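Good morning C.,

I know you're traveling, so I'll keep this short. The sequence:
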Amino acid sequence: MDLRELYYLNALAEEQSISKAAERLYIAQASLSQFLRQFEAQLGSPIFVRTNKGIRPTPSGKVFLSHAKHILKEYQQAQQEFWDNENTVGGTVFFGVSSFRGSYVIPPILKKFYDQNPRATINIYEGNSMNLVEKIREGELDLALSAYPIVSTEGIQMEYLYRDEVLLVATKDHPILQQARMDETGRLRVSMEEVTRHECILSGKDTMLGHLIRSAFGAYGLRLKSKHDNITAEFAASMARVGLALAFTYRSCIVEEPDVVYLSLGSQGLYLRLALLSPTTDYRSKATLALTKLLREELSGKNADKKTPSPSNQINEGAL
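The tokens, ready to paste straight into the viewer:
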């Protein structure tokens, strides 16, 4: 067995689909299928069960794949320590972030990182906060930018960075603007009660933004009128920017357009707290430390207060 085969097996296990794994590995699906057949023939037993929905590991396959993943981790750490011993910021950092926030916040930070560390590589994993926490806990990611608080910090180191404000997206001719008021900082604000009088486009309940919005309004006994209730945050904001209805987005994900306004919610605003997560380990590569330092410099205090966050007030920062 060589490392290439380990990468193939790991991709198949994670994607649970030969076609998706082949796409991820940049090889032909037929070639990956042939590899898997030959590899299972050498073992004398199947690693995966084929189903109508894809593939899943057999009980024995789960054990084998667990060892394969461990070998890959050991190799990657050995490779990283080699780079560090050469006194060079190189190797690969496995970094996790949500697709929505990542597409707005991370690209300029990546550009700066690569300018400073041309021999390093950042392998980005996109997932929701629950996925990111699990990947960190399992040691599959070196670093992640995730919502705070998390259910359990076992096996996880956490550094609070900043809080991202949740804003209402509306066109300038939307009737809700008639009820908006400018505060002393120059931000337009609207009461949460006023929002419930208008049609909204919501993200799914299983997303952080969708859950946060429903919880915040529900805490005041308010119910939103929903035109759509399972739309991605980026798609919902795009729909709101052309006047289909109101939607919600983060301040870090604002798209400036002449006919669009962003309103703060309530007298205090509504915020999502964010933190950097990493596995509890004695070893962190120079590349990981360099990325951590850059993220801290670029994001700490952004749209935020400096106070230590408390789980009890994560949602209850809005006011009618």
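Safe travels,
E.
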